[in-house]
């Protein structure tokens, strides 16, 4: 997840290109991108500007470089092989869980950007062709103070969401669950969320461009912490989401969870996780979160080398509530 002081947020979809008043040429993109500059939109009503990677870390922005590059169907050949570890591990774990189920596919969605080679998608086939239900998390982490060499354990951001999805997937498979709705149930683990929602943007736009219908997308990003001495709740972020889906999730939480949904309005303030990729291209999305965002009851250790399970306030029992929610939401939306 990206919080206001750290935001590294991708501009989702081509509408942002249409809003820009200044014409961005092929040559300008090619020349500046080759120099390591990034094209950023700082607000909806301003022209995009070029900034260095270092400058990106200190401002709130949309990174629209890839959006403009997509207009010319460029393909990046950059790759960092060492960044495939988490993707490969999740892929192999999901394949093990799915063993013996011919109706389940486990695949990697290949990307062209340098930060990771692939996201991971598991699909439990539905009874026929129809809208897909998606639960998601991201499998990358970052150290904002030292993005190149700093340790980024990412236990909460987003190790918790990643393992929430693995356990929810395992539990449903172990129970023999099969969607009774026409559409399938998918679990997504996204690459490169921390550098601009790149993985989810790639997949969401691919689904949109190929006419895939999406019933709902629910994102799990940071689920293992709540500030000591504050109420334990499941917050439902209230911006860049579908209000109807949020209302539905409140009913699910009341029926299945042992802690309540946070009753307060809790906007994140910007496109703070992968749900925003889906919301921006017109799909209903929601973002259940570990604690009240506005009150800053969330984990203060994210994006540092202190994002571990040993910090005060981290709770696997709390995170387990989000596994329950993932299972319940998946079941209620696709059963």
From TrEMBL:
Highest rank taxon of the organism: Eukaryota
Keyword entries, A-Z:
Aminopeptidase, Hydrolase, Metal-binding, Protease, Signal, Zinc
Leader sequence segment: 1-20
Q: Does the keyword Metal-binding apply?
A: yes
Question: What are its cofactors?
Answer: Zn(2+)
Residues crossing the lipid bilayer are: none
Q: Which GO terms describe its biological process?
A: proteolysis
* Ranges where the Peptidase M28 domain occurs: 120-309
**EC assignment:** 3.4.-.-
InterPro entries linked: M28_fam (IPR045175), Peptidase_M28 (IPR007484)
Q: Report the Pfam families cross-referenced here.
A: Peptidase_M28
Query: Which GO molecular function terms does the record list?
Result: aminopeptidase activity; metal ion binding; metalloexopeptidase activity
Write down the PANTHER family for this protein, in alphabetical order: AMINOPEPTIDASE YDR415C-RELATED, METALLOPEPTIDASE M28 FAMILY MEMBER
Family recorded in the similarity comment: Belongs to the peptidase M28 family. M28E subfamily.
Protein name in the entry: Peptide hydrolase
Organism of this sequence: Paramarasmius palmivorus
């Amino acid at each position: 997840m990206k919080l206001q002081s750290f935001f590294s947020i991708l501009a989702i979809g081509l509408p942002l290109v249409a809003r820009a008043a200044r014409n961005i040429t092929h040559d300008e993109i090619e020349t500046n991108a080759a120099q390591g500059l990034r094209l950023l939109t700082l607000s909806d009503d301003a022209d995009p500007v070029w900034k260095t990677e270092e400058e990106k870390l200190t401002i709130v922005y949309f990174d629209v470089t890839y959006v403009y590059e997509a207009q010319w169907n460029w393909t990046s050949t950059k790759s960092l092989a060492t960044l495939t570890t988490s993707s490969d591990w999740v892929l192999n774990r999901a394949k093990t869980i799915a063993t013996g189920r011919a109706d389940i596919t486990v695949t990697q969605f290949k990307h062209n950007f340098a930060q990771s080679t692939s996201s991971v998608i598991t699909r439990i086939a539905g009874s026929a062709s129809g809208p897909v239900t998606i639960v998601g998390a991201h499998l990358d982490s970052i150290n904002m103070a030292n993005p190149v060499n700093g340790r980024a354990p990412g236990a909460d951001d987003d190790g918790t969401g990643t393992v929430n999805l693995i356990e929810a997937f395992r539990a449903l498979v172990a129970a023999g669950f099969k969607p009774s709705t026409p559409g399938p149930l998918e679990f997504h683990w996204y690459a490169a969320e921390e550098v601009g929602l790149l993985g989810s943007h790639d997949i969401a736009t691919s689904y949109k461009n190929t006419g895939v219908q999406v019933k709902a997308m629910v994102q799990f990003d940071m689920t293992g912490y709540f500030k000591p001495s504050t109420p334990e709740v499941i917050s439902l972020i209230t911006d860049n989401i579908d209000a109807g889906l949020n209302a539905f999730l409140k009913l699910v939480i009341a029926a299945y969870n042992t802690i309540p949904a946070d009753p307060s309005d809790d906007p994140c303030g910007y496109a703070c996780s992968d749900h925003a990729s889906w919301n921006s291209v017109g799909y209903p999305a929601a973002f259940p979160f570990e604690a009240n965002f506005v009150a800053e009851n969330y984990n203060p250790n994210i994006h540092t080398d202190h994002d571990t399970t040993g910090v005060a306030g981290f709770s696997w029992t709390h995170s387990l509530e989000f596994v329950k929610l993932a299972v319940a939401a998946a079941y209620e939306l696709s059963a």
